[in-house]
Amino acid sequence: LALYFHIGEREEKCIIEDIPSDTLVVGNYKVQRWDIHTHDFLESAPGLGMFVTVTSPTGEVLLSKLYGPKGTFSFTSYLSGEHIICFQSNSTRFAVIAGSKLRIHLDIRVGEHFLDESAIQAKDKVNEVNVRLEHLIEQIHHVTREQDYEREREEKFRKTSEETNSNILWWAIVQTLILISVGIWQIKSLRDFFISKKLV
């Protein structure tokens, strides 16, 4: 996931990532500040840091740390589900004058262990092949976890659909029985009325 978004200097912005359990998540970000003179975002925002907070689906805080204007954060998910990743600048300016816009460039990689380039450039080819093999094995494990998570979600969705269909069927049966009962009662009432009036 690679994106950018704008926030106010004292504003908090959150994104939601649906992540399987036991998965490493690595995020890289860069902050740019709006310059009123050039009417453009400056390449960097020196002196400005970002609070990064990550919350699990149960509300447990997995990460809460202050980084610089450019940084890398990582965490491991313990539960599958929607994780909330929030960003807020550490600006100490008053809200009245902290009207400056910030642009956050964000790149999030889920379940990806990056190759150690120094190990890859090693002269020993056996070590290089070994590192690449370990990386491939880790990626296979990640794909397996993703598939398990998708199966789990699909099973929950299927159960919910079946329960809903069952409830609709029973409600239709109840409505039919009520309609039949009301019809029989109306016929009986009309019959009794006609008999009492000696029309039949």
TrEMBL record:
Its main location: endoplasmic reticulum. GO terms for cellular component: endoplasmic reticulum membrane. The keyword Ligase does not apply. Residues 12-110 form the GOLD domain. The chain crosses the membrane at residues 168-187. InterPro entries: Emp24-like, GOLD_dom. Pfam families: EMP24_GP25L. It is found in: Endoplasmic reticulum membrane; Membrane. Keywords: Endoplasmic reticulum, Membrane, Signal, Transmembrane, Transmembrane helix. It is a single-pass type I membrane protein. PANTHER family: TRANSMEMBRANE EMP24 DOMAIN-CONTAINING PROTEIN. Belongs to the EMP24/GP25L family. This is TMD11 protein. The lineage of its organism: Eukaryota, Metazoa, Chordata, Craniata, Vertebrata.
